[in-house]
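Thanks for the sequence, V.! I ran Elongation factor G right away. Repeating your input here for the record:
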Amino acid sequence: MPYSTHDLRNVALVGHSGCGKTSLVEALLHAAGMQGTPGSVDRGNTVSDHDPLERKYRHSLSSSVIHLEHRDSHVNLIDTPGYPDFIGHAISALPAAETAAVVIDAQAGIEMVTLRMMELARARGMCRLIIVNKIDLPDVDLPGLVLRIQEAFGKECLPINLPAGHGQAVEDCFFHADGDADFSTVAAAHRALMDQVVEVDAAFMETYLDQGDIDPEVLHAPFEQALREGHLIPVCFVSAQNGAGLPQLLELLVRLMPDPTEGNPQQFYQDAVGNDGDDGTAGRKLLHASPDPSLHVLAHVFKIAVDPYVGKMAIFRVHQGTVRRDSTLYIGDNRKPFRVAHLYRLLGKEQIETPQAVPGDICAVTRIDEIGYDAILHDAVEDARIHLEPSPLPQPIYGLSIAPRKHGDEQRLWDLLQKLCAEDPCLRVDRMGSTGETVLSGLGELHLRSVLDRMTEVYKTEVITHPPKIAYRETIAAMADGHHRHKKQSGGAGQFGEVFLRIEPLPRGAGFEFVDAVKGGVIPRQFLPAVEKGVRQAMESGPVSGHLMQDVRVTVYDGKSHPVDSKEVAFVVAARKAFRDAASKARPILLEPVVAFEVSLPEDSTGDVTADLSGRRGQISGMRRGHGSVAIISGHVPLSELNGYQSRLNAMTAARGSYTISFSHYDAVPPLMQQRMASQHKAVEDDA
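Predicted structure:
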């Protein structure tokens, strides 16, 4: 059925693991008449969790796109994983939607991922909707949960419907002003919504004050404005299990949630040609895509899926223009276009061919190997260098040394790891020059275990793994100068390059900065990229323990060249050794990743757990009550102290405790630990 941009609704379902997002998708598909009996996570037959490993684990591992039709509207739902180890897939889905629907378990309440996704959606300017699921469970305190939601996210969180019949039904509170509810009253909730919505429009406010009420049907524009400005965050109640609230939720999605012309537009920017600003933003031109089907195409790839039989599939959101079957598109800065041979809408693993995609559509193309995550697809050469404002993805911090079980399969394993990294923006693979190891890094133990299972069960590749590798980094604590002259003569043309440079520390997390302060052309301009290349090579292995260096500014201020013998390779070598000379004198220090943690445990175990964390260099920053007799402890701890932590936690809590972590920052390791690691690194180098 053809539809326009105004008929589209794009909603990302996000929230903590176990809140029932996948079950809610199944229930909505059933309520919209898209399928018969809803699938079940326990039975492994849901539409969105179609991956064999998802069915094995009984939870989502990546985002999945599902569409449904209701009241002549086309609703794209993006079901995202809730485990912190897979949060990268949830974050990367946000730019594809106008609305972030944050699902909360009525019994578990507000959890860590709930807080994080609400803040990320706010930062992206998304309209937010809170869905309280499982309202039919016994002993749920819904009035108390509403108060906690308002304490956590603001008084603008207002019920747009209320449960009735002890969680067996739901009463609308926006289009209706009366009805029975399990707590509060429909009339009071209706008044609160009217008060909040009309506040954004002076004319409606005046009418409301004069008449005492306004027909909700005429409040669509101020309602959308209130959503865009974060002045209103509707709270609705459902039970995916018994179907309560599902018709009201469908009505809410199609009648009140924004279409692509009504939500806040995503922020794009275009880099200037030859942009070489210190912070990478010099000459950057900000722009907004317009949801106009007649303009040139701008689409953003937010997910890559690689099937061992079908190949690569790129899932993208159209922000501007119309993508048609047989269209010719460019990928980012790539000057070679590709033809859209097939264009698909998605219903889980089902691919439904469609002739075109209008602004706001979410579609997919297959078998285009050059497309990667976060790529911009466009149909005009002048739109090269356009990017979408990036999502703040968490850093991979938990690593495993990995090798093929079968000798000679090293290249095959490397190619497979590259495919897996293309699918997952929070997965990284590195070859460590200092040790010769291949290290696979992710967000946690569960993240990497799922990748290893995929390699074994889907790609039939057996591997050997070694204990986790911590992603240590190195930096410097002082300014220092370095110098090296590279001179090599071997009968014919020689090599000559001389570099003087200065290094100084940058604030933690600033990365790397290269400054050209050469005067008088003593190093010809064409060799400066070679100097930077040599510096970057040297930073791959720091002087303390051989780990990657960061937070360093390098200023090249002098040097010499030879009209015949100077070559790029000479300046690469000279810069590399000049940097190492400076780094050894700049008080190098070793940095370790520090993670934010949240431990959920029985209240009677808090003493043992806090004492254990404190003994492992952890800093407790807060403690609060969860549901029932559950306590939640939060704080920061070095990642290296969490090896095998779940086993220790099980012992302290009788297997009733769980924890989540997310990367926070890098901090200096204690001096004794740095001395020990430096000694171990030196011994390895001496043996080599």
